[in-house]
Amino acid sequence: MRRPVDINTPAGRVQGYCDPQFEAVLAAFVDNFTQRGEVGASVALRLGGRPVVDLWGGRKTPDGEAWDEDTVCTVFSSTKGLMSLAAHLLADRGKLDLDAPISSYWPEFAAGGKEAARVSMTLDHTVGVPHVREPVALGGFWDYEAMVRRVAEEPAFWTPGTRQGYHGITMAWTVGELIHRAAGMRLGPFFAQELAGPLGAECWIGLPASHEGRVAPMILAVPDSEWIATTFIQDALTNTGSPANLFMRDFAIFDANSRDCHAAEVGSANGIANGRGLAAAYSPFANGGLHEGRRLISQDAITRMGRVSAATPDDATLRVPTRFGLGFMKTMDNRRLPGVVNSSLLLSEAAFGHVGAGGSLGFADPECQLSFGYAMNRMGTGVLLNPRGQSLVDATYTALGYRSNAGGAWAR
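Now predict its structure.
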């Protein structure tokens, strides 16, 4: 049973539907608008492939038109999860060997200390090119071929496989070009043809002009003293040339509200979606690889997607402990660490997905057949989830009978 929702809040109306089992998710979503400063957002859940929650609300801008059922926005690094779904689909079809040398697909990459790098290293952030050292010109990220050349030529920051550091933007071209060469088509069209289209998922990596009017602009987070004092921001501000510094340098010129950005193919950062689209994209991966009774991907592939591939007590870019699968974030608990703000992602141990800058999230949890999507236009501080997104995740797991996340992962 899906109960229609239509609630007025001072920040705008909340609409959609919600299965009674997930009333706590609705309550948390409303609280985001009334207590946590949400401007516009959407959240959606599928259980066993069946839509059980689809909510949207607020406004596209603080004083502007309503965020409606079809509103979408930039989901930043949540795009990495979508790109990784495409990579695993190719691997399952025998088109992309995750254990092979990158050079077997992309000979030009085998330079500058990267000669022995393997495909899997591009997915778990150990390949050693988290950034390009020389600045990228304004608008340069939209030039796919030029960025592929830059990344291939970039000398490794470390011997591939020996260290882990978040590849905040360059993953668009390390993974994206491998998909291009394995599939014989670029990431954006491949994702649309093989995943978004068949799944009915309104997610794009390269937005057609016909949908531009649906996009809500992103609202940057306002730094506060607590965020500025974090290890990550202090490294970014004071350690010129460090991965954290280069990440912030590049993010500053990444104009996510431009049409040029929306139209480009940046598989690490410029995906356009809403909660419904993210939940639909992850749904088969939460349900044994099946979509409407037909197999999309094997169970063995999903098992590999859910495993931890690399973990570190000090990510070279994000400067917090991180845990990654092959292309996906795993549950990470940094709540008790000093010098961090909003730097945790509390899921079940079985779940895999990806957070986007500011707080968006898409993930699959095969343990409980859950797929989840959350997208919003007001960005929060921190490098992982902020309380708006985590409150929705917490309410979801509680509704499913999970007991606690005190151990660092939601457990029954």
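The first strand starts at residue 3 and ends at 9.
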